[in-house]
Amino acid sequence: MNLLIKYIKYKKMFVIGFIAKTVEVILELFLPVFMAVVMREGLKGNNYNEAYLMIGLIMAFAISGYFSTVFSHRLTAKVSQDFAKNLRQAIFYKVEDLAIEDTDAFSSSGLINRLNLDVSHLQNGLAMTMRVASRAPVLMIGSIVSLFIISPKIALVLAIGLPLIITVLIVIMYFSMRIFQLFQKQNDRLLENVKDNVEGVRMIRAFAQVEHEEKRFESRNKVLSEIMIKLGKVTSLSTPFATLAFNIVLVIMIYVGALDINIGSLDQEQLIQVINYTTQLTLSVIGVMNLVLLYTKMYSSTIRIKEILDKDKSVIDNGELIVKEGPMKIEFKNVDFSYESSSKNTLQKINLVINPNETIGVVGLTGSGKTTFIDLLMRFYDVNKGEILINDINIKEYKIESLRDKIAYASQKAALLYGDIRSNINMNKEYSDEEITEALKDAQAQFILRREKGIESEVLRQGMNYSGGQRQRIALARALVKDSSLLILDDVFSALDYVTDLKIRKRLDKRKNQQTKIYISQRLSSLVNTDKIIVIDGGKIIASGKHDELLNSCELYRSLYETQVAGGIQ
Prior knowledge:
CATH class of the largest domain: Mainly Alpha
Number of strands: 12
Oligomer: single chain
Radius of gyration: 35 Å
Number of helices: 20
Low-confidence stretches: none
């Protein structure tokens, strides 16, 4: 409930809409009374003036109830839609604010379902609360009170049967909620299956796994379908059961009423009122029952959404300092780090000083911790032990936004967003055409400039309309156009041929930017001209120095060199 209230912006509208719907119910409760008067005075007593007056009141109350309902529904639409917008925005902002390690706890399909499906359930629940929760309880209470006023004996029949009916409905609701929670988990799995097939379509076809994936989807889809059928069977019991049970109660009530009419303690028009109020009560109970069904979905969705909104951040942005302009000095002091899912340190006892304007190469075997080393610099994660200093100040003293704003970064997996080349390079900044063109040339991405639309060329989702090497060069241009204090290239040359690699390195050497540079690469040819090369193995720095020095002093480096084509080293 707190989750609902927090993100309802138009709380006054919510209350007004709730009251407007309640007014409509109160007006509706008077209609059986007016109809009884019409029957007694008009049909029996020939008092047509009073009968016409009652008919007029029936019309007036019905029209007033209609306008009250229309007004309430307009407010409901505005309040519920705005609530959904606010909640979706809060979830998205929270996900954006979480550290990478925090978001790893959720699958991408689970996040998408929470943002769409679960928010929709809460939105529908809020709308139905204004439409039904304001109407059904008042109608139920009003109908029961009216029945007791008309005939306590007849109302007693209802008082005995109603608790039994509600108990059975509660049992049905309980099982519905359990099944729906299972549906949500299975739905996440199915969406994850679809996502894997869309993103890995080339690999699946290359390994002739299309039939296998079809069977895997069929299996999960079948399980989801069985859950939905089971849920449908359980929920379909509620309305027919409620209708049948209330009709049985109504028959008993009519029988008791008929006996009272025979002895003269009840009028025929009062029996008509009993039938009308019992019908209203039946409809209101069915309405409440459907609302509770929706609330079971809301309950499950609320738990899933709160898992995100209540998730504690592992990287806290408490810094207040701004990273100064100019080349960055970096120092690692006894740094240890391990991922939450692992008990073993990924990096351990890292001690390193990178001076301003230095160009540092980082090399090591796959899984040695090279990318983790960069992730700590970007504050995607925080160290477990030790500290990282930026310009002789602990990295945690800086605002994360300021820190990352001073770092130009190109990762080993080129990530492009839907849009065009300009928007992918600008990344919400504004660079001139000349700056973008120069960056594309430095990244050997002139193929963009040769296109008809140039830097306005379209980029599809994840850059699927470009090859791996093209995506890598566009991502590199995005890093090079940025006037930063630190340039990090994380294995960006892996998707490039050696000739393009060499051309890019020559362009980088000629750049006049005053910045510290860190190059991570499996290719030693990309690192030979750096000021210093760091060799990482098993999460530890085992050697550092110039290329020639490491060939003589570091066995791992020499082994890497010997496995590569010595003639390619320039």
